[in-house]
Design goal:
This protein is mostly helical. It is built from 7 helices and no strands. Helix 2 runs parallel beside helix 5 and helix 5 packs parallel to helix 7. The protein is elongated, with a radius of gyration of 19 Å.
Length: 206
């Protein structure tokens, strides 16, 4: 592939500035899926921090912190996995149309279906992080209600972003069960974000 069609892999061990440079580069990846995974990691990390400051004030704080850490660790490899999955889509798109255009179409459809798995996993994790952030905004350390709310809203954005990619990748198969599931995740995360935002606003008047 040429420089402009070759997806560049990234991982979170790279300097942050280098990651941003690769995202900004004129190449197919890392793109939206990797960014959504990174946003999920950041939201989970912020959620874990807010939870640790809630220990002693909230019975489930340590459990929430540990779960947020677990979600972050699971989301980290998805940053690189998304670019790899997109590379398979690019490879399928480069298959010759002749002599078997049907085989090419089937290969593209399989690659897109497989590529939907990564943002689907991101959406699952991000929606859970959003729920954890809302819990912390309600019952956690009141001095960190803003951090908890931001973690929740960032996770909600990651959920919605990942869901967009799932829908795009599965546009040729509207009966795929993942479409219903990802819609449910978006609603779950949106509910959590509205709740956290309201709690943050209410804290200003206390």
């Amino acid at each position: 592939m040429s420089e402009e069609t070759q997806a560049e892999l990234v991982n979170l061990e790279m300097p942050f500035a280098s990651i941003l440079e690769r995202v900004a580069a004129k190449s197919p990846g890392p793109g939206g899926g990797a960014v959504a995974a990174m946003a999920t990691c950041m939201a989970a990390a912020l959620c874990a921090m807010a939870a640790r400051y809630a220990v002693g004030k909230m019975d489930s704080a340590l459990e929430i912190a540990e779960r947020a850490d677990e979600l972050r660790r699971k989301a980290e490899p998805l940053v690189e996995a998304d670019a790899a999955a997109f590379g398979q889509v690019m490879a399928a798109l480069k298959l010759p149309k002749a002599p078997d255009p049907l085989a090419r179409q089937q290969a593209i459809r399989r690659a897109l279906s497989d590529a939907a798995d990564v943002p689907m996993a991101v959406a699952e994790m991000a929606a859970e992080v959003a729920s954890l952030g809302a819990l912390l905004a309600q019952d956690g350390n009141p001095n960190l209600v803003g951090d908890a709310a931001i973690a929740c809203m960032l996770a909600e954005a990651a959920t919605r972003s990942a869901a967009c990619l799932v829908s795009l990748n599965l546009a040729g198969n509207r009966e795929d069960h993942r479409l219903k599931r990802v819609s449910e995740l978006v609603s779950k995360a949106a509910f959590a974000a509205r709740r956290a935002s309201r709690l943050a606003e209410e804290s200003l008047h206390q």
